[in-house]
């Protein structure tokens, strides 16, 4: 067994905490690549949204982009997990980076003032199929980058990449769209995938931590089943409920600012930016935990539910903007804890399958959550949808509290 698989106790404290994983070169390369990738996606998403809206003026036509992007994850997510447990995640990520660059470049060629929507939907669907494997492999590789000692911190920190990109991506994408148009925005994303390929290529395979052994135990021969115990099933249920009812912020926050408060585009941009800044802080707080169990989701879901309630109760746009960073903090802390708990709750050999279930629950629920929350907002308001989200998060707090309670002797 190679040295990276057996970190000694003296280095455990040094590698724990928010800064610990960055002391490992491979993780730093991975994190930089994730920030670049997530920022590039904002350029493409904004461009496609504006192209479709300008051509059709239809929110239903726009929803087709979301469905085409995320439905393949719902269909292929579990197959991706099985693949990632058999093929090195680094290899999967190298292949998906190149395929994503090719498909994205093709997408840039078909956007126009009078686009063929079905061709766009088709290419977005192909890209979503590639991303089904990309998202699972990006989570499964974390253990191999840092090993068991820093796994919780690294899993929490990985969520910061998404929030960091969200804090700058929309503004940069808007400037690029105004100055250069949709095709250039999408080509920027294609170029970002090539840069990400380079960062992943630089990850040294010889320094990765293998997932076939743990605590000195030798991997059994033959096919070992992936079993989901009580804690794991609780985590998966909470992930689905929260993703479905409480994580549709692109739709909910925009609709709340526009329809409930009468805010303009600058107010929409401000609430998303403030939310993203708070999410970075929340991810950092989550990364301070050296080990995370499913039980740790009790405070995470409770805090998330409370800040959702505060945002729902805000009577004015000014107070809603003031509450936005708190909501972001709750989101970032929850995501950091739930991702770390998922990584820690299974044997390393089955991280790929575990994260495929998590991906299925989070990204796979996006189309259904968008349809449900869109209907609720049209029938009531964005503030009501936030109140429903708060209630769902607090209900999950009770569920985790009950199902993870220590057994009485």
TrEMBL record:
* Residues annotated as domain Major facilitator superfamily (MFS) profile: 184-409
Q: InterPro entries in the record, alphabetically? A: MFS_dom (IPR020846), MFS_trans_sf (IPR036259), TM_effector (IPR010290)
**Broad class of the protein's primary localization:** membrane
Per its UniProt entry, which superkingdom is the organism in? Answer: Bacteria
Spell out the residue ranges making up region: Disordered. Answer: 1-20
Q: Where is the composition biased (Acidic residues)?
A: 1-16
Compartments where located: Cell membrane
Q: Which terms are listed as keywords in the entry?
A: Cell membrane, Membrane, Transmembrane, Transmembrane helix, Transport
Q: How does it sit in the membrane?
A: Multi-pass membrane protein
Q: Which residues form the signal peptide?
A: none
**Chain segments annotated as transmembrane:** 59-80, 92-111, 117-133, 145-165, 171-196, 232-253, 265-285, 355-377, 383-402
Cited Gene3D superfamilies = MFS general substrate transporter like domains (1.20.1250.20)
PANTHER family documented for this protein: INTEGRAL MEMBRANE EFFLUX PROTEIN-RELATED, STAPHYLOFERRIN A TRANSPORTER
Q: What is this protein called?
A: MFS transporter
The organism named in the record is: Citricoccus alkalitolerans
What is the phylogenetic placement of the source species in the record?
Answer: Bacteria, Bacillati, Actinomycetota, Actinomycetes, Micrococcales
């Amino acid at each position: 067994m190679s040295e990276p698989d057996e970190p000694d106790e003296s280095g455990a404290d040094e590698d724990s905490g928010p800064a610990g994983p960055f002391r490992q070169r491979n993780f730093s390369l991975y994190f930089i690549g994730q920030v670049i990738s997530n920022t590039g996606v904002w350029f493409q998403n904004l461009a496609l949204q504006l192209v479709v809206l300008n051509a059709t003026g239809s929110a239903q036509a726009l929803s087709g982009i979301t469905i085409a992007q995320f439905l393949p994850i719902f269909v292929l997510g579990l197959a991706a997990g099985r693949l990632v447990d058999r093929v090195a995640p680094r290899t999967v990520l190298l292949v998906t980076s190149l395929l994503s660059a090719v498909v994205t470049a093709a997408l840039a060629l078909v956007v126009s003032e009078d686009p063929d929507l079905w061709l766009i939907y088709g290419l977005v669907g192909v890209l979503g199929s590639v991303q089904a494997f990309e998202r699972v492999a990006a989570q499964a590789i974390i253990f191999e980058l840092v090993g068991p000692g820093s796994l919780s911190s690294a899993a929490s920190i990985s969520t910061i990449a998404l929030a960091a990109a969200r804090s700058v991506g929309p503004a940069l994408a808007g400037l690029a769209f105004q100055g250069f148009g949709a095709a250039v925005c999408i080509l920027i994303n294609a170029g970002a995938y090539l840069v990400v390929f380079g960062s992943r290529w630089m990850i040294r395979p010889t320094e990765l931590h293998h997932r076939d052994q743990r605590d000195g135990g030798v991997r059994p021969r033959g096919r070992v089943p992936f079993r989901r115990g009580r804690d794991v099933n609780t985590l998966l249920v909470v992930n689905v409920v929260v993703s479905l009812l409480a994580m549709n912020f692109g739709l909910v926050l925009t609709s709340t600012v526009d329809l409930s408060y009468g805010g303009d585009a600058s107010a929409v941009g401000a609430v998303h930016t403030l939310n993203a800044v708070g999410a970075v802080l929340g991810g950092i707080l989550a990364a301070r935990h050296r080990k995370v169990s499913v039980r740790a989701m009790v405070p995470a879901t409770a805090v998330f539910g409370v800040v959702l309630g505060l945002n729902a109760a805000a009577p004015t746009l000014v107070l809603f903007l003031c509450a936005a960073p708190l909501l972001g903090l709750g989101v970032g802390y929850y995501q950091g804890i739930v991702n770390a708990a998922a990584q820690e709750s299974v044997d390393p050999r089955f991280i790929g399958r575990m994260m495929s279930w998590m991906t299925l629950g989070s990204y796979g629920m996006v189309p259904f959550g968008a349809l449900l929350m869109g209907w609720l907002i049209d029938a009531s308001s964005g503030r009501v949808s936030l109140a429903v989200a708060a209630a769902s998060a607090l209900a999950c707090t009770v569920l985790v509290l009950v199902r993870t309670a220590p057994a009485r002797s």
